[in-house]
Amino acid sequence: MMNRLLLISILLHCFTSVFGQKENVLIHIEEDRPLIIYSDPLSRQVDTIIFKNDNINNLALFIIDEVLPFHFKGTLYLETPDEDFVSHSGFVEKTDCFGFINADTYIATEDGRQLPYVRLFSEPSLKATYILLEVNSYDFIEAIPIDFVDYEDKYFSKVLFIYKNQLMEGYVTRLCTQFYTTCT
């Protein structure tokens, strides 16, 4: 099942590269917390409630069409046990979404190894101040996306996440739907 989600993610990446930028995020449907899709986020009008069960994969892909202060508008794609996909359009809360932050720079050590780091920018610009966050090449940072900014020919994702027991917020250049990819 996860391979099909990867395939859909790759196809969507190719589609958006040709037809315009659309951001993809993941949603984890938990056993004890259903996913609510709203038809109107201001009145909190519920369109669909999705519960975790044996008929769907617990990981879903969400394609964002519009960014609002507390919600994303877009389409959710769920995989069924027979490897089909069902889709639901509407608004989801940003806190239900996540992505993986990948290393965007490498620093050489004295023994010649290249250690991966993530640059967390204070603003959506490569000229902005940033802090370096060390990441293990087999680990990833899971983050909540807040916004997406196209600035100075570079695409930035504003994210919120926990790093070494500290709440972090800032801009990154690589927020991915797969943790072993070289997304941009």
Give an overview in words.
The protein folds into 2 domains: 2-97, no CATH class; 99-176, no CATH class. The protein has 1 helix and 14 strands; from the N terminus they run αββββββββββββββ. The chain has one helix at residues 2-19; strands at residues 23-28, 35-40, 45-50, 59-67, 71-79, 85-93, 97-101, 105-108, 114-121, 130-134, 141-151, 154-163, 166-172, 175-176. The strands form 3 sheets. Strands 1, 4, 5, 6, 7, 11, 12, 13 and 14 form a 9-stranded antiparallel β-sheet that branches. A 3-stranded antiparallel β-sheet has the order 8-9-10, with no helix packed on it. The longest helix is centred in the N-terminal third of the chain and has 18 residues, at 2-19. It starts with a helix and ends in an 8-residue tail after the last strand.
Key words describing this protein structure:
2 domains, 184 residues, three-stranded antiparallel β-sheet, 53% strand, mainly beta, globular
Condensed summary:
Helix content is 10%, strand content 53%.
What's the gyration radius in Å? Answer: 17 Å
The best one-word shape is globular
Structure classification? mainly beta
Helix content: under 10%
Number of DSSP-assigned strands: 14
Give the count of helical stretches: 1
Biggest pleated-sheet summary? 9 strands, antiparallel
Itemize the secondary structure elements and their pairings.
Elements: H1 2-19, E1 23-28, E2 35-40, E3 45-50, E4 59-67, E5 71-79, E6 85-93, E7 97-101, E8 105-108, E9 114-121, E10 130-134, E11 141-151, E12 154-163, E13 166-172, E14 175-176
Antiparallel strand pairs: 1-4, 1-7, 2-3, 4-5, 5-6, 7-11, 7-14, 8-9, 9-10, 11-12, 12-13
